Amino acid sequence: MEGKKYRALGQDCQAVSEIIGELLMVCIVVLSFSGIALVIFSEEGAANPPHTPYASLREKLNTTTDTVRIVHIGGGGAEIC
After folding, report:
1. How many other CB atoms are found less than 10 A from the CB of residue 56?
2. Buried b or exposed e, range 9-45, using 16+ CB within 10 angstroms
3. Phi, psi (5° rounding) for residue 80?
4. In Å, how far are 70, 73, 78, 79 from 59, measured between CA atoms?
5. For 51, which DSSP code?
6. pLDDT at 35
7. How confident is the model at residue 45, as a pLDDT?
8. What residues are paired with 72 via a beta bridge?
9. Nearest residue to 55 via CA among 42, 37, 38, 70
10. Residues 21, 13, 4, CA angle at the centre, nearest 5°?
11. CA-wise closest residue to 59 among 67, 68, 51, 50
12. Domain ranges across the chain
């Protein structure tokens, strides 16, 4: 009686093999597309183009009058130390 149960469970493995095969194929496709996307989006010029505008600001704190003054120095490539 017990031998029939084990044989019945062992004979139904074909569908499991097909599902595992399809799952592996989907994983391969997803990894391939993510690798391609990583290569495309990791180029230096695509992520940070040289014409990105920005502003240089400097703050001045006055503790006696409790004021904060923010001065716009400029933008572009100017760097203030």
Report:
1. 14
2. eeeeeeeeeeeeeeeeeeeeeeeeeeeeeeeeeeeee
3. -110, 130
4. 4, 10, 17, 15
5. T
6. 93
7. 58
8. 57
9. 70
10. 175
11. 68
12. 2-75
Residue 39 is given by DSSP the state H
Interacting residues of 10 by C-beta distance below 8 A, sequence separation 6+: none
Distances in Å between the Cα of 21 and the Cα atoms of 17, 26, 33 are: 6, 9, 19
Kind and range of the H or E element at 31?
helix 14-41
Low-confidence ranges of the chain (pLDDT < 50): 78-81
CA 81 to chain centre: 33
In this structure, what token pair is assigned to residue 37?
């996307």
> Measured in whole angstroms, how far is the alpha carbon of residue 70 from the centre of its chain?
35
**Tokens standing for residue 70:** 């923010």
**55 bridge partner residues:** 75
Return left, alpha or beta for 55; rule: phi > 0 is left, psi -120 to 50 is alpha, else beta: beta
